[in-house]
Amino acid sequence: MLTIGDQFPAYQLTGVVGPSDALEFRTFSGEDREKSWRVLFFWPKDFTFVCPTEIAAFGRLHAEFDERDTRVLGVSGDSEYVHHAWRRAHEDLRELPIPMLSDSRQDLMRACGVRGPDGFAQRAVFVVDPDNEIQFTMVTAGSVGRNPTEVLRVLDALQTDELCPCNWNRGEETLDPVKLLAGV
């Protein structure tokens, strides 16, 4: 699996965007928002139980990620047509403000190292900086949903470009090594 310091792979995937009554397909690539932060999260498959809870939670934080100039993209191996059907059928996904990308050939999953032995994506997330360098990764067991609020907290810490203590939150003081070494 790719990790901190690695370059995020190039990709060009079709995604589903828009409210459920006007869904459309669009092509997304790693070059779309060059020099911006990105959060890419993978889920195993559509029409499941844990996945929509995570996808909807990322969607509810869309404005906060957007405020931080960060694009959130969700990815699975299902086709854009399956994403489209799921968005229309699932109440929590109908007004989703983030794109659902199709990696049906599993090229991005393989390039990131998150294709599971069962052929489905692992429940993984990558935070990628404006230089396309991975700054944070996380993978959970398929039965355990991620915490998008924690991803946002880590993004906040990364964007300070300073030392942040355990459980640091936006607006709190960061660590000053000079003061710490001086005992101040």
TrEMBL record:
Q: What is its EC number?
A: 1.11.1.28
Matching Pfam families, A to Z? AhpC-TSA
InterPro entries per UniProt: AhpC/TSA, Peroxiredoxin, Peroxiredoxin_AhpC-typ, Thioredoxin-like_sf, Thioredoxin_domain
Kindly identify the residues recorded as the active site. Answer: C51
**Any one GO molecular-function label of the UniProt entry:** thioredoxin peroxidase activity
Keyword annotations: Antioxidant, Cytoplasm, Disulfide bond, Oxidoreductase, Peroxidase, Redox-active center, Stress response
The places in or outside the cell where this protein is found are: Cytoplasm
Report one GO cellular component.
Answer: cytosol
> What's its catalytic activity?
N(6)-[(R)-dihydrolipoyl]-L-lysyl-[lipoyl-carrier protein] + a hydroperoxide = N(6)-[(R)-lipoyl]-L-lysyl-[lipoyl-carrier protein] + an alcohol + H2O
Subunit organization: Homodimer; disulfide-linked, upon oxidation. 6 homodimers assemble to form a ring-like dodecamer. Identified in a complex with AhpD, DlaT and Lpd.
Q: What does this protein do?
A: Thiol-specific peroxidase that catalyzes the reduction of hydrogen peroxide and organic hydroperoxides to water and alcohols, respectively. Plays a role in cell protection against oxidative stress by detoxifying peroxides. Together with AhpD, DlaT and Lpd, constitutes an NADH-dependent peroxidase active against hydrogen and alkyl peroxides as well as serving as a peroxynitrite reductase, thus protecting the bacterium against reactive nitrogen intermediates and oxidative stress generated by the host immune system. Does not however seem to play a role in detoxification of isoniazid.
Per its UniProt record, what PANTHER family does this chain match? ALKYL HYDROPEROXIDE REDUCTASE C, THIOREDOXIN PEROXIDASE
Similarity remark: Belongs to the peroxiredoxin family. AhpC/Prx1 subfamily.
Protein name per its UniProtKB record: Alkyl hydroperoxide reductase C
Q: Which organism is it from?
A: Streptomyces hainanensis
* The organism's taxonomic lineage, starting at the top: Bacteria, Bacillati, Actinomycetota, Actinomycetes, Kitasatosporales
